[in-house]
Specification:
binds shikimate-3-phosphate, alpha/beta, 5-stranded parallel beta sheet, globular, Rossmann fold
């Protein structure tokens, strides 16, 4: 069975949506940021601070090669920049979780642990820089995706159902 690869901007809800899909199906989930943190035994934030973004991106590409060769039938959630790895569609069906920047930013701010959510994301330290990154990436996310799911004004169970319905077709 093919993998499902969830892509989308930081804070759009890839993690919570992945957990809901797992609850509703026989899928088991992997998360590329979690794989990288366990490979390195340090947090993403620390990897960025100690080694820089370029090194982090090389780890993402290494994980992508490993997933392509070794993983199937799995729901893979990814970091917001993972869409850039070469041939992402060869890993599985790529599902973009899409919402406007303001929706994403408000979703983070509404979280009871908003400070923590922002602090762990080195590329979300400055809202204007994050917005520019979003604008720059949007066409590239759309290009990388096989399926686009608009997550605006939908709850997590509804989004999970939509993903399962669309990938089955
Ligand atoms: C990144 C997103 C993060 C993490 C890293 C870089 C990005 O993942 O991989 O901080 O480039 O958008 P989330 O999308 O889970 O925040």
């Amino acid at each position: 069975m093919k993998n499902i690869v969830l892509i989308g901007f930081m804070g759009v809800g890839k993690g919570s949506i992945a957990r809901e899909v797992v609850k509703k199906s026989s899928f088991v989930a992997l998360d590329t940021d979690d794989i990288i943190e366990s490979m390195e035994n340090r947090k993403i934030k620390t990897i960025f601070a100690e080694e820089g973004e370029k090194y982090f991106r090389s780890l993402e590409r290494k994980v992508a090669r490993w997933l392509k060769k070794n993983v199937e039938g799995t729901l893979i959630s990814t970091g917001g920049g993972f869409y850039k790895v070469p041939n992402i569609k060869k890993i599985g069906t790529v599902v973009l979780l899409h919402a406007p920047f303001e929706t994403i930013y408000n979703r983070i701010l509404e979280h009871p642990e908003a400070d923590k959510k922002l602090a762990k994301r080195p590329l979300f330290q400055d809202i204007e820089k994050a917005r520019a990154l979003y604008e720059e990436r949007l066409p590239l996310y759309l290009k990388a995706a096989d399926i686009v799911i608009d997550v605006r004004d939908k709850n997590v169970p509804k989004i999970a159902n939509e993903i399962l319905k669309k990938v089955k077709r």
